[in-house]
């Protein structure tokens, strides 16, 4: 399995709710730089948090890659989602190449858990950071972090 984990681009500081924060112009540029890493190796599916900034990030990647399938919005990719629950959902997907678009602290904790098998070493994921993990199964401690791109 090949798994990419993308943190949304830089977002506005203020909005009515955290879920409504939109990408800034700089955030859109960051996302496009990270999307370029995926050119020539597109995932089979793009899954995104329902939060506006993650939806905008996923849409930019979708367009940059010329991705045919629509982005799938899933409720289990919000900032405070449980990484173990995300792993369980990934296991149910039955696809080999997946892009997740989400938020901190989830993305850092998820990458750290998949790589190290615990929460003591979360990955440093700044805005629009893209982690690439590979392994036979999406299980804690059984994936290898093969690339961590910071735009």
How large a portion of the residues is in β-strands, by DSSP E? 15-25%
Query: What is the CATH homologous superfamily assignment?
Result: Phosphoglycerate mutase-like
The tally of strands reads 6
What is the annotated CATH architecture? 3-Layer(aba) Sandwich
Shape summary: globular
Biggest β-sheet description: 6 strands, mixed
Characterize the quaternary organization of these chains. Answer: single chain
Which H/E pattern describes the elements? Answer: EHEHEHEHEE
CATH class placement: Alpha Beta
**Low-confidence region ranges:** none
Number of helices: 4
Mean pLDDT: 96
CATH topology: Rossmann fold
| Cα separation of the termini | 24 Å
Report helical residue fraction.
25-40%
- CA radius of gyration is 14 Å
**SS content category:** alpha/beta
> Taking strands numbered 1, 2, ... along the chain, how are they ordered across the largest sheet?
3-2-4-1-5-6
Protein name: SixA-like phosphohistidine phosphatase
GO cellular component, one term: cytoplasm
Keywords: Hydrolase
Organism: Pseudomonas wadenswilerensis
């Amino acid at each position: 399995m090949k798994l990419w984990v993308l943190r949304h681009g830089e977002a506005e500081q203020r909005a009515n709710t955290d879920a409504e924060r939109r990408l800034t112009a700089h955030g859109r540029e960051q996302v496009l730089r990270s999307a370029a890493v995926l050119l020539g190796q597109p995932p089979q599916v793009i899954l995104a948090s329902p939060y506006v900034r993650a939806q905008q990030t996923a849409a930019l990647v979708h367009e940059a890659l010329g991705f045919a399938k629509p982005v799938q919005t899933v409720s289990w990719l919000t900032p405070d989602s449980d990484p173990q629950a995300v792993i369980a959902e990934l296991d149910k997907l039955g696809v080999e190449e997946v892009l997740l678009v989400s938020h901190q602290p989830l993305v850092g904790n998820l990458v750290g858990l998949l790589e190290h098998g615990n929460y003591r070493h979360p990955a440093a994921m700044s805005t629009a950071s893209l982690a690439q993990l590979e392994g036979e199964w999406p299980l804690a401690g059984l994936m290898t972090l093969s690339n961590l791109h910071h735009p």
